[in-house]
Amino acid sequence: MTTDRETAQPEIGNSAVLRLPESSGLDADDLGEIEFGSGEKMIVNMGPQHPSTHGVLRVMMELEGETVLRCKPIIGYLHTGMEKTAEELTYAQGATNVTRMDYLSPLANELVFSLAVEDLLAVEMPPRATWIRMLMCELNRMSSHLMWLATNGMDLGATTMMIFGFRERELILSFFEKTTGLRMNHNYIRPGGVAADLPDGWEEDVESIYKTVLFRLDEYDEFFTGQPIFRERVEGVGTLSAETAIELSITGPLLRASGVPWDLRKTMPYLAYDEVDFDVIVGTVGDNFDRYAVRLNEIRESANIVRQILDKMPKGDYRAQDSKVTPPPRARIDQSMEALIHHFKLFTEGILVPEGETYVAVESPRGELGCYLASDGTGRPLRMHVRAPSFVNLQALPPLLRGSLVADAVASISSVDPVMGEVDR
Amino acid sequence: MTESKPNETATDQTIMGLPVQKTPSGQKVVFSDVSNYHKLVEHLFNDGFNFASDLCAVDYLTNINRKLPDAISPERFEVVLNLLSHGRKERIRVRAMIPESNPTIPTIVDVYPGVENMEREAFDMLGIIFKGHPDLTRILLPEGWEGHPLRKDYSTGRVPVQFKETLGPR
After folding, report:
1. Are the beta carbons of A247 and B114 separated by less than 8 Å?
2. CA distance B38 to chain A (A)
3. Looking at this predicted complex, what is its ipTM?
4. Closest Cα of chain B to A55: distance in Å?
5. What domains are there in chain B, each with its CATH number?
6. Closest among A6, A3, A53 to A406, alpha carbons compared
7. A59-68: per-residue pLDDT in tens?
8. How many whole angstroms separate alpha carbon B166 and alpha carbon A263?
9. Which portions of chain A are predicted below pLDDT 70?
10. What is the residue range of A217's domain?
């Protein structure tokens, strides 16, 4: 296939972003004239139901033989208007909405929404709420990356890895279920704190999770990193340069794999990330192998952070004691009329957020997850926009797939790690 | 709505003659109109803001008299651009006013190629036309969709889901 690739290169041109307008797509009448010989180009739709496109992603590809000349991701199959829905929900209900966007890291979504609301409200968080949020988000990062290792393994034909990844993720999801009551879409991190305190004995659970995951990661290392067949499939495939990545607003493991040490947890710390010690994992060439290595080692760093949180978890309240945000305790509602009125107002009118606008960003497992929130002083947002990392990162597909084989395209799409719930919102 | 917060600083500096404000939590915001928008973005790019984090549009139909600097006249739509400087670890936000009568603004894909998808989304959801965009088509909604759902005058729950007949491969 190397000869094909060489001949394919000059026709592509030098443009960094390759576009395929809808109008230049295949016409039905042309179908009869296509000959599947050499030198003939062909436009093929991959998806939206292809299992390896991680949801309903459709990629239009122009192929010559098995070489991808250019491609265009087509999205929107999962669009449900969640940003419009957010305008009709109170701030207290908002977290249930955003948690359904990136369903593999729901806690990061809840976190960024809550941080945005709290930024407008100017509420101070008690330290325990901050550290619980950090613990949950790091566990979520581990589970999300494990899920990625599993699906990426499956895309490359390693079915064992799929079973392994899901097995370890299950440990974390069980802990989430114990803490929040749900395995996904937790609505646990809310404006004003978290929904509940950590369960009794959470230290032992968390300790067993990070120890097991760290032990199993060494197994994956043996299983994948040194394995010649795997390296052959991923090394040098889907290279993304640092300049292209920054130009295209790529964030997260993709950007770091290209050699840019940019991690919001380190560079612009939020929560209490400046009080824990961890490394930013950076790749060199930005190929599929680097993206694999960055994610694998980020699980190690997250386990490292979780271990430190275990030692440093402060005592105290798990939600802000601000009566404008937090409903009064159940016992007081029976005794105090004011408490009852307050409770009623909070749940009918919602939290009243002062007029203003803000943009808050956190580092989700997929990159910079931002929330732009504009308030007009009522109990519902005027506009809630989520900057979804997968949505922006999908722009990396055209340069990634350019000149690669269809079989490698599957691996490259997987290495972008798009979550379609977040892309389409 | 008109009372000003004590910790909200008044216009304390300008960029290219355009007013700059800080939100109560310290986020820097530059206000612009359509004519200065592209020049301002180019200036900020040359100033070290090498990364476009986010671009979205907002419809202020129900809250047209929001707090704005005196030099800026309120319009119905705003395009909100969040820029990031990797070197200085600093963010800045551009809020560009767009009139309802002609919701058109120059594209900045030539400065930040990464906003291509975001501008398409703003066009799809709010009908802002980005002049010079290489591929300004609907991105999340089907091609034949009528209206722009995130506009405040687009009601929810009344419009039946519209699916056109399959036209064959496009």
Report:
1. yes
2. 17
3. 0.83
4. 15
5. 13-131 (3.30.460.80)
6. A53
7. 888 888 788 8
8. 44
9. 1-39, 51-53
10. 82-320+354-397
